[in-house]
Design goal:
Length: 119
């Protein structure tokens, strides 16, 4: 019995080092697949064949490193005196907010008069 020739394209190997870096900078599945020159479905299928649950789960695991690096950089920027970053982090992490109060008055600080007309 003769061996049947393989049909279709040869399997594209996933460059996990590159994929990890793409996930760490929050690239979408479609962007990662495009970089790998495969469809998203193919990327997801290869991940499953290689023992991973899915791209979504792989991304969750690998994207956290990028978030940590970004948070570290933001924190360092704030600690180095970047006032804008200090304010932003205060709003995000400490629930701080800008308070502004506006008072509306009528002429010369008096009451506001409303006229209601009915037909």
């Amino acid at each position: 019995m003769k061996n049947k020739p393989k049909v279709g394209r040869p399997r594209k190997e996933i460059d996990y080092n590159a994929l990890d870096k793409l996930c760490s900078i929050q690239c979408t599945g479609e962007e990662c697949a495009g970089f790998m020159d495969v469809s998203y479905d193919t990327l997801d299928r290869h991940l499953k064949e290689d023992g991973h649950v899915s791209f979504a789960d792989y991304f969750k695991k690998k994207s956290s490193g990028g978030k940590i690096s970004l948070r570290r950089t933001q924190w360092k920027s704030a600690m180095d005196g970047n006032v804008t970053m200090q304010i932003w982090l205060g709003k995000q992490m400490l629930n701080q907010k800008d308070n502004s109060r506006q008072e509306v008055t009528g002429p010369e600080g008096g009451d506001i008069k409303f006229v209601v007309k009915f037909k």
